[in-house]
Design goal:
Helix content is 12%, strand content 52%. The chain is mainly beta and 89 residues long. The radius of gyration is 14 Å and the shape is globular. The strands form two sheets. It has a four-stranded antiparallel β-sheet with strand order 2-1-3-4, with helices on one face. It is built from one helix and six strands; from the N terminus they run ββαββββ.
């Protein structure tokens, strides 16, 4: 059964990049929570992913003011600060 994960991108009290993860049972609760945190201090925004047994995808993102990378490591989705590197061939 699929589930949704809300990632909240922000900075902490010493200005370090932080990502908080919240698992939601449906898209509506993930979206509502994401919209509610947009006005909070030090919050860049949010990313919502949909995950099932064998795959995941980004459903929506609302992030401003920071470059970030989203990917998968050891079967777990991660988000970290940085720019995706583009290689020209």
């Amino acid at each position: 059964m699929p589930f949704y994960t809300l990632f909240i991108l922000s900075t902490n009290s010493i200005n370090e990049f932080c990502v908080d993860r919240k698992v939601c049972v449906n898209l509506e609760s993930a979206y509502r929570t994401g919209q509610n945190i947009l006005g909070a201090e030090n919050v860049y925004g949010y990313v919502i992913t949909k995950e099932d047994d064998y795959s995941w995808s980004v459903i929506t993102k609302c992030v401003q003011g920071v470059d970030y990378i989203i990917g998968e490591r050891n079967g777990r989705i991660f988000i970290e600060e940085g720019c995706p590197q583009i290689v020209m061939v």
